[in-house]
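Severity: low
Component: inverse-folding endpoint
Summary: output formatting inconsistent between runs
Steps to reproduce: submit the following structure tokens with default settings.
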């Protein structure tokens, strides 16, 4: 008798003492002691078989593809696969960053243990096996609980390129703008190091996490990656950052009660981050451009993003957003942790990183235009405040008498129908430096310049869900020309 157990099997007398028994893929318990009339062989290795016409046949698992498929699917809901994807959005520093490596996850009840080991290859402006084109991301995590309520802890080590400010526009928008037109709306620097973390998730998609880490911070230079419609335009230089060894303690929290995460009509979204850092500086140390003379600095940095969505009628909503951030305590913020208020994600009526007035309250820049452009138009504000509000109302366009639809799809070819949303909006915000009060750019730490020197714009647009077309009119500054822009997804 062949017993394909693939687990623990049990034989009780008299069966255990009659005939020949072969156990494959598991263990056998209840085997009689001593010599019996029957013969028994047990093979613990997994036995791949199938049933055909009442017989057991060995499964052919000899090819590389079949073995990989079995490794990937074995033990569901466990996960074993090889991930290949983009590590970051397309940008002028990395080009396309390709991430590849194995992921392993073991699940037992409400406990889950996962491991990731990813390598990163950056295409840059040419395919070359150079040290700066390689990075990695290693992570191990143990989680107890369900997706609705859990506690997790773990560790990771990384060598990655990170964005200075990522809250203004999405990664998809930045990547497409960079690839198509050579316009990169972010700045970047390199982070290499490790961290320990603990995270808790609860109701209303709430997440609280604490991490402690130590990293090496370095500047990255802009490359010349492929652009489809660049023309004669050069890439904007990538601003330099303070380099050194950073010791970090960070606390992050998210609360999300929105009825829809992609197209919200009602609810709250709150995101906050506090980072306490100490940076041992080893270069570049330029007391003129960075206003630093000590070889070390400590800082406490706070960032808040608070949104409220209000449905005031079946097809109308009014939404508001407050974004605030800056130096909370300590010496000063390094350049890679400073802020700006400009561009389509903040004040779309004003050009991205453009000097619209003096003093400049968008980037907190005091250098001449030529020097500012040569440095890459860096963000230089210690603090910032942005207020956004919008009125949204649905509309339906139906040609040739198509039947009325009741779902909420943005686009469908049913009698040439397109559903969308009309939007009217207003944005107002500014950044400032901390220190002795001057002519409108620097304020004491205990002061918030409410409505003092704020830039404001108003506009209208049409949102079709996956993309929207808008026009914004600036209300201050030397240029009052309206600006037309496109967004992928909602504004906020």
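Observed output (run 2 of 3):
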């Amino acid at each position: 008798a062949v017993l394909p157990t693939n687990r623990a099997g049990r034989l009780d007398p008299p069966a255990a003492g009659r005939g020949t028994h072969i156990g494959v893929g598991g263990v056998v318990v209840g085997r009689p002691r001593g010599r019996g009339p029957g013969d028994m062989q047990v093979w613990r290795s997994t036995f791949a078989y199938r049933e055909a016409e009442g017989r057991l046949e060995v499964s052919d698992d000899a090819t590389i593809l079949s073995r990989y498929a079995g490794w990937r699917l074995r033990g569901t809901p466990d996960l074993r696969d090889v991930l290949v994807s983009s590590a970051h959005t397309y940008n002028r520093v990395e080009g396309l960053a390709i991430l590849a490596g194995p992921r392993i996850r073991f699940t037992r009840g409400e406990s889950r243990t996962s491991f990731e080991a990813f390598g990163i290859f950056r295409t840059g402006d040419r395919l070359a096996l150079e040290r700066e084109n390689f990075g990695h991301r290693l992570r191990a995590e143990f989680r107890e609980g369900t997706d609705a309520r859990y506690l997790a802890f773990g560790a990771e080590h990384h060598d990655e390129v990170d964005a200075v400010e990522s809250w203004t526009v999405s990664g998809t928008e930045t990547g497409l703008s960079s690839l198509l037109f050579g316009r990169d709306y972010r700045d970047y620097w390199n982070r290499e190091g490790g961290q320990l973390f603990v995270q808790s998730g609860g109701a209303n998609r709430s997440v609280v996490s604490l991490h402690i880490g130590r990293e090496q911070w370095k500047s990255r230079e802009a490359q010349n990656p492929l652009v489809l419609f660049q023309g004669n335009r050069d890439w904007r230089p990538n601003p330099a950052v303070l380099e050194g060894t950073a010791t970090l303690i960070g606390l992050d929290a998210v609360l999300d009660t929105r009825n829809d995460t992609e197209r919200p009509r009602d609810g709250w979204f709150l995101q906050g981050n506090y980072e306490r850092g100490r940076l041992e500086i080893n270069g570049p140390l330029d007391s003129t451009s960075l206003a630093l003379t000590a070889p070390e600095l400590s800082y406490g940095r706070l960032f808040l993003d608070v949104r409220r969505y209000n449905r005031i009628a079946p097809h109308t909503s009014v939404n508001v957003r407050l974004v605030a951030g800056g130096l909370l305590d300590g010496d000063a913020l390094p350049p890679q942790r400073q802020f700006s208020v400009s561009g389509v994600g903040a004040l779309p009526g004003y050009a991205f990183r453009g000097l619209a007035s003096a003093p400049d309250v968008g980037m907190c820049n005091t250098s001449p235009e030529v020097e500012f452009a040569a440095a890459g138009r860096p963000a230089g504000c210690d603090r910032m405040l942005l207020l956004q509000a919008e009125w949204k109302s649905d509309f339906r366009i139906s040609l040739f008498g198509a039947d009325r639809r009741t779902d909420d799809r943005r686009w469908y070819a049913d009698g040439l129908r397109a559903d969308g949303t009309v939007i009217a909006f207003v944005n107002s915000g500014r950044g400032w430096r901390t220190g002795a009060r001057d002519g409108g750019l620097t304020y004491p730490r205990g002061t918030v310049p409410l409505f003092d020197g704020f830039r404001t714009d108003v506009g209208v647009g049409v949102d079709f869900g996956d993309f929207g077309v808008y026009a914004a009119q600036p209300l201050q500054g030397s240029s009052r020309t309206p600006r037309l822009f496109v967004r992928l997804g909602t504004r906020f």
